[in-house]
Write a structure and sequence with these properties.
The complex is a heterodimer. By secondary structure, chain A is α/β, with parallel strands linked by helices. Helices cover 39% and strands 24% of the residues of chain A. In chain A, helix 3 packs parallel to helix 5. Classes of the chains: A alpha/beta, B mainly alpha. At the A-B interface, helix 2, helix 3 and helix 5 of A face helix 7 and helix 8 of B.
């Protein structure tokens, strides 16, 4: 089997006495969509911060494209090809949509005109082409989520970390954006997503990792994980799996 | 800003002023206003575009002034070279202060306070060190020759400071359009989001500090050649830190013409107030304060921003429910 694009080996992160993430190992195959799920406070976003260089692991190794990138700062990882979105969207509020995406595009296009051209191409891909001149702070929630995605895409990543890009969207908006995510995978971008919208996880992900209280409690196919007793208990409480099995 | 034409136009108009106006009082006023504009242009790169509000740009003004003066007086170095060395010294001090402040991760008011502290430390050091002339200050010998960078005619001084302001306008224009400028603005708007997009925030802020330091130092170098005197209160005093940040904020922080517009307006109002009241001490500062409050209240993007705001208001259909941004 080929080496995974991203592999996380026994990574831990402590905040003082609190173990936010403990000994987590996971692998993301190149060209796949992998999901990271778990109840609130499980450490999913901490995991993203560790992979994208916003936090340094207390322990463990992060490998990307075969290289040990543990503890490298965020901007250098972005240069290597890891892009992330933020759960709480982080637009450059005073700038237009075009200027927002341009910032990301500049990573691979030093020239101003090339960066703007690349930004416009990305905007078309995520469906923001009609709003290029709108100020970022005038966008709706769905628009901001798309902008968040567009900025990350503009850095032309190999690995895209999506932190709840569907949260806060209504069902029709979710239906609109799922094909966008799938088309990104189809053109070669590997995706690791944190998601609470199970409909999306089941339809998109080929592999799912489940975190609870900072530890990995299950991994496998979406169907396998959904039937896993430990996962059901993590979401619904102790003994829930047994009760569910008993009920007709 | 989309094109270079407005800069060329403004410079052309200002270049013609001494040909039409011969009053020394008016020219002196304009020279001082342009010098403050230059100091503000330096502040504007770091504060306006980069969002790093310095309360101590006297650090750079004073360093430029002292290096220009001391190299001439103590070491007999040519004034033009000393002037250039003063600008380089401003950039170098920018590296040191920026490296210390940004490596330590200081943001917002912490950064502002550290710059203020640096300026105060330098002021105290300059007021006791023998090389700066301590409490007495340093006097540059009167030598009205082109080679000594001193001119009998006010107009020549005017054109010199205008040329420096023009260079700073062009630098600002280049920064605004470049990748560096896009990254700098991104850091101002949201540093974490910028880092996620591959922006080395520390390096970008440090770069802005260096450009900013060099430009504001040039204002200090010019001060010495124009007034031929510098002491610790002039060089590292709070007055220049305040004017360097007030003029761009009033004129429009993060805009190309903000510092120039702000300096002309603020200086004109200050001088006007002194004339009307017969030189009541400190009144110009009161005027600064009132203008600052008015601008921040009515148009957070300064006078230049006010123009854009009004344009948007009258451009949009009446009663279309557009929101006031004031």
């Amino acid at each position: 089997m080929a080496e995974p694009l991203l592999s996380v080996e026994g990574v831990s992160r402590r905040f003082g006495g609190l173990l936010a993430v403990g000994g987590v190992s996971m692998a993301v195959r190149e060209g796949s969509i992998t999901a990271l799920i778990g109840p609130n406070g499980a450490g999913k976003t901490t995991m993203f911060a560790l992979i994208s260089g916003f936090l340094k692991p207390s322990d463990g190794i992060v490998r990307f494209g075969g290289a040990d990138v543990t503890g490298e700062p965020a901007h250098r990882l972005a240069r290597r090809g890891i892009a992330r979105t933020f759960q709480i969207v982080q637009p450059f509020a005073g700038l237009t949509v075009r200027e927002n995406i341009r910032v990301g595009a500049h990573l691979r296009h030093p020239e101003r005109s090339a960066a703007f051209a690349a930004a416009e191409a990305v905007a078309r891909e995520v469906g923001l082409e009609g709003l290029l001149d709108a100020p970022a702070d005038s966008l709706t929630v769905a628009g901001r989520k798309r902008l968040e995605l567009a900025k990350a895409l503009a850095t032309e990543p190999k690995l895209l970390l999506l932190d709840e890009v569907l949260a806060g969207l209504n069902p029709s908006e979710i239906r609109d954006i799922i094909p966008v995510i799938r088309s990104l995978r189809d053109r070669g971008i590997t995706i690791l997503m944190i998601e609470h919208v199970m409909q999306a996880v089941m339809s998109l992900a080929e592999r799912v990792y489940v975190l609870a209280e900072g530890r990995l409690i299950a991994e496998g196919t979406p169907e396998g994980v959904a039937a896993d007793a430990a996962v059901i208990e993590a979401y619904l409480g102790h003994g829930a799996a047994k009760r569910l099995a008993r009920s007709p | 800003m989309k094109s270079f034409a407005p800069i060329a136009l403004v410079i052309a108009v200002l270049t013609a002023v001494p040909l039409l106006v011969h009053s020394n009082v008016v020219l002196n006023f304009l020279v001082v206003a342009l010098m403050i504009a230059l100091a503000g242009q330096g502040w504007n790169i770091l504060g306006g575009y980069g969002g790093q509000y310095s309360f101590g740009h006297a650090i750079f003004f004073g360093t430029g002034a002292y290096v220009t003066a001391i190299l001439q007086v103590q070491y007999g170095i040519n004034a033009w070279l000393a002037f250039g060395a003063g600008i380089v010294a401003g950039a170098a001090v920018g590296v040191v202060v920026g490296w210390l402040a940004f490596r330590a991760g200081l943001r917002g008011s912490y950064f502002a306070l550290v710059t203020l502290a640096f300026a105060e430390v330098l002021r105290i050091l300059a007021s006791v060190a023998p090389i700066t002339g301590a409490g007495v200050g340093t006097l540059v010998k009167l030598d009205l020759r082109f080679a000594a960078l001193q001119f009998e005619s006010r107009a020549l001084f005017y054109w010199l400071i205008l040329a420096l302001v023009a260079v700073a306008l062009v630098v600002t224009y280049a920064v605004e359009r470049s990748r560096f400028g896009a990254w700098l603005t991104a850091v101002r708007e949201n540093e974490d989001a910028a880092r996620a997009l591959g922006v080395d925030a520390v390096a970008v802020k440090l770069g802005a500090m260096v450009i900013s330091g060099a430009i504001t130092a040039a204002a200090g170098c010019f001060y010495v050649q124009y007034f031929l005197f510098v002491d610790s209160h002039i060089a590292y005093g709070a007055w220049i830190s305040v004017e360097a940040l007030l003029t761009p904020i009033i004129g429009g922080a993060g805009t190309i013409f903000g510092p120039l517009v702000g300096a002309l307006v603020v200086k004109a109002l200050g001088e006007g107030a002194l004339l009307v009241t017969g030189q009541a001490p400190g009144l110009d500062l009161v005027v600064f304060g009132i203008v600052l409050i008015a601008v921040v209240g009515l148009s957070p993007r300064g006078i230049v921003g006010l123009r854009q705001q009004l344009g948007a208001r009258f451009g949009s259909r009446r009663g279309a429910g557009e929101a006031s941004r004031g």
